[in-house]
Amino acid sequence: MIEPRPLTRWLILGVVGLVFLVPIVAMGEFTLRRGLEGGYDFSRWIAVFSGGLTGEYKGVLTALGNSVVLAVVTVAVMLVILVPTMVLVQLRFPYLRRAMEFVCLLPITIPAIVLVVGLAPVYSVVAKMFGSGVWTLSFAYGIIVLPFAYRAIQANLQAIDIVTLSEAARSLGAGWTTVLVQVLLPNLRRGILSASFISVAVVLGEYTIAALLNRVNLQTALVIVSKSDPFVAVIFALLALVFAFLLLLAIGRVGAPRRKRSLTGASS
Amino acid sequence: MSLTTRSAAQTDAKTRGAGATVEFRSVVKEFPGHRALDGVDLTLQPGEFVALLGPSGCGKTTALRVLAGLEDATSGSITIDGADVSGLPANRRDIGMVFQSYSLFPHLTVLSNVEFGLRMRKVPKDERRTRALAALDMVGLGVHAERYAHQLSGGQQQRVALARALVTEPRVLLLDEPLSALDARVRVQLRDEIRRIQIDLGITTLFVTHDQEEALAVADRVAVMRAGTIEQIGAPEELYTRARTSFVAEFVGLSNRLDGVVDESGTVMVEGVRLPLIDATTPLGPVSAYVRPEDVVFAAEGIPAEVVSSSFLGSFRRTTVRLSSGALVRIQHGATAPAAVGDSVFLALTGAAVAVQQRA
Amino acid sequence: MADTLVSVVAPLEGVEPAAVQARRPESSRRAAFTVPSFLGLVPFAAYILLFLGLPTAIALFTGFLDGSGSFSLTNIEALADPVVLNTFGNSIGLSALTAVVGSVVGAACCYALIGTNPTGLLRSVVDSASGVLAQFGGVMLAFAFVATIGIQGMVTVYLRDSLGIDIFADGVWLYELPGLVLPYIYFQVPLMIITFLPALEGLKPQWAEANASLGGSRATYWWRIGIPVLTPSFLGCLLLLFANAFSSFATAAALTSQGSQIVPLQIRAALTSETVLGRENLAGALALGMIVVMVIVMTLYSLLMKRSAKWQR
């Protein structure tokens, strides 16, 4: 009843969709240019990939490696610190849930550019303890991904009754470790997976903190490269965008099929 | 009213020693701002099925959870077979528990769910499987072993939960309103099944419910709870016919409350009719008298009344009449309607027992 | 947890409560349950304090220190400097403009998506694309726009060669403030879609049915029911878009190589010691200014969302 007419629907989506496709297409077109002679080919793409780890673009690939490491460590930080705390709050401290939600949504109000002003002194201490490798950025990244990770896991937590599940497991003789690992985590798989994927995407796209703390990650490397060779920068940017898109699409589809699983309703 | 009285099978189980003795001794449980249990004393004999009955907030679920170890008592003690378990955490008390809302682990098959407790006890794989399948057969769900919880109906899920709780042969079985979320017909079927299994196994059982019909139907003894204490405990018939307080009389079964006067020991005068008293020691003076609907009958002469409404309930009828004093009385009688709405009738009170209390 | 203590003492197979009782005096019964639980919150609390609380505090309070580390209001006063004020004005103007355009276009897209299958392909694609563009774009969007409307960009070249229009006739604006508008809109619209679509789904079908049964048309429904109910969410999402643009740094950093026309760029300049009014700790003052704006905007946002949530319960 309140749906738009099909014409309206496809007009709006079509126009917006096309407009939004233009930059993507432009990126593609840009990377296929052959240079002064005009015309198109894949020479630039081939150059990037054939160079490999020893080629001209070694810097970008190293930076990509850094970003991957950062993504992995950030996800680990999130899993080890955030998930148990959320479970604990749900089980034992339900009155703290609002407070925790507020804290986890704070990073939206405190943008990275502000945070980084105060992170510099903190990281000088961190450097003394853990060295100044790139991976230590994950501690800050864990904060940045908090709003996304929290929302993804909380949606899952609210859908299952972990209080009853843990009580049932306890009544059957399970200790708390068993409850967490064998009963709760398997049922939190969807939320955790979703949170992990989103965190990976955020880390891969992060620029602000890495740049202002003088570390090298994918995005900072791309910015540097773009000053000298814009074509490579655009190639990687296109790849990264497509990769992130497929990642998010995967999360979305992982959620969908479950709902369609048929209930073979047997009568009592 | 109770499905069974103690049968031979049950007595066998008792002598087998399958059931444990459970004792609550002066158990108090305080939550911030609210005293949930106010000194509960209760003993469950081996193999006994006791129902905790009461309105929401009376403490019945709290009492169960304290026994389970899911809450700690503020003071008092809980003993199982004579040993104090108050210090034991929930996963070491060797109890079986069935929860109200579906507590089956969604990520495990039905069989894995039932095997869970055995896994915790490090029972070897083959024995685990055999015992779990046997437990599922006991509740009639052996064919569904490889299904998942969401593929079963509510009644089936609760039966799996029961099998899961019993497969480890615990000393005590705890049921926290296991039937409240089910359809009416399933509820009746399942409660009979629970009772049957309980008798076969001879396991001491504590059953929490707010449904008095359910409690009366399955329990050996019913404990009516109010505001954190047990108001009265006894066999179902006893609670029904010999309620000691007005709360019990009003909570257990339907009751008509009429004004009366105790004028000589042993009897009370109600609407001009003299009735014997349950408790002969009730002091003289004005009282509230409770008369069961089935103890009020239509007669050729007696107390005048006017028919207000009548409901057909299958095997019997319930008719409401208004007395000249304005009081409404409900009568339970055979299915044929004796009179239409608005008619004048006469009532007689049969010599059934009456629970009486001082009027405020 | 304390339970493991007991598990050592009394194995489950043949529980021996008597032995346990002998070892555990009554007073320790309560302690076993609550004390360890609180400890479980410590890792998270410590982490938040160290990497969120502390940096924020530092960012806020260094604004109140001068070069020698003593309390001073000079940095705060510097916020009144015309250069800084201009920067804030730019930030606010840019954010407001892109927020309004983004929210209107985004709302239109959400309207177009009403009634589509939530688990279907269209929705999945829109959700994923919006997610990517809204949150992970930054630097890469800058490149996309250089490729599109940069000096050698596809659209620039097309307009010049085919239609004779030179969009950079008056100077290359892509690398200055006006050049940020289009990229910002590019991530504002998807963000609007992400945040506003749930609100549209909160419109109960019963309201539309009631409207119809009472004789209302599609237009009356939207005018009298739909739009009034959705207005708090719409405004809330608009504020969110504003906050998003205001705090954005990566896109601007990638596009503009020199100059600090917006606040985040000013902060970068202050941190990398480019001469910004020659003051130490100016970054802290700027950060403080940003936080003030963000707190105001986010408070209004949450108030609006609470109001709309109440109606759509």
What keywords describe this structure?
heterotrimer; A: 268 residues; mainly alpha; 0% strand; globular; disordered C terminus; C: 313 residues; MetI-like fold; 15 helices; disordered N terminus
Describe the structure.
The complex is a heterotrimer of chains A (about 270), B (about 350) and C (about 325). Chain A is mainly α. Helix content of chain A is about 80%, strand content about 0%. Chain A has 12 helices and no strands. Residues about 255-268 of chain A have low confidence and may be disordered. With about 350 residues, chain B is α+β, with helices and mostly antiparallel strands. In chain B, the strands form 4 sheets. Chain B has a 6-stranded mixed β-sheet, sandwiched between helices. A 5-stranded antiparallel β-sheet of chain B has the order 13-12-11-14-20. Chain B is globular. Chain C has about 325 residues and is an all-alpha fold. Chain C has helices spanning about 5-10, 15-25, 30-40, 40-60, 75-80, 80-115, 120-135, 140-150, 155-160, 180-200, 205-215, 220-245, 250-255, 265-270, 280-310. The model of chain C is unreliable at about 1-35 (pLDDT under 50). At the A-C interface, helix 1, helix 3, helix 4, helix 5 and helix 6 of A face helix 1, helix 4, helix 6, helix 7 and helix 8 of C.
Write the layout of secondary structure elements.
The complex is a heterotrimer of chains A (268), B (360) and C (313).
Chain A lengths: L5 H27 L10 H9 L6 H35 L4 H13 L2 H19 L6 H23 L2 H10 L4 H12 L1 H17 L2 H5 L5 H11 L1 H31 L8
Helix pairs in contact in A: 1-12, 3-6, 3-9, 3-11, 4-6, 6-9, 7-8, 9-12, 11-12
Chain B lengths: L7 H9 L5 E10 L2 E11 L4 E5 L6 H9 L6 E6 L2 E2 L10 E4 L11 H11 L4 H14 L15 H13 L5 E5 L7 H18 L2 E6 L2 H7 L2 E6 L2 E6 L1 H6 L4 H6 L4 E9 L2 E4 L2 E4 L8 E7 L4 E4 L3 E10 L4 E7 L4 E6 L10 E6 L5 E4 L2
Parallel strand pairs in B: 3-8, 3-9, 6-7, 7-8
Antiparallel strand pairs in B: 1-2, 1-4, 4-5, 9-10, 11-12, 11-14, 12-13, 14-20, 15-19, 16-17, 16-19, 17-18
Helix pairs in contact in B: 3-4, 3-5, 4-5
Chain C lengths: L2 H7 L7 H7 L4 H12 L2 H20 L12 H5 L3 H32 L7 H15 L3 H11 L4 H9 L15 H24 L3 H9 L4 H29 L3 H6 L7 H9 L10 H30 L2
Helix pairs in contact in C: 4-15, 6-10, 6-12, 7-10, 10-12, 11-12, 12-15, 14-15
Query: Largest chain-chain contact?
Result: A-C, 88 and 89 residues
DSSP strand (E) fraction of chain B?
Answer: 25-35%
Annotated CATH topology of chain C: MetI-like fold
Output mean pLDDT of chain C. Answer: 79
Low-confidence runs of chain B: 1-17
What is the structural class of chain B? Answer: alpha+beta
Write down the Rg of chain B. 24 Å
Q: Kindly state the number of beta strands of chain C.
A: 0
Mean pLDDT of chain B: 86
Overall number of structural domains of chain C: 1
Order of helices and strands of chain B: HEEEHEEEHHHEHEHEEHHEEEEEEEEEE
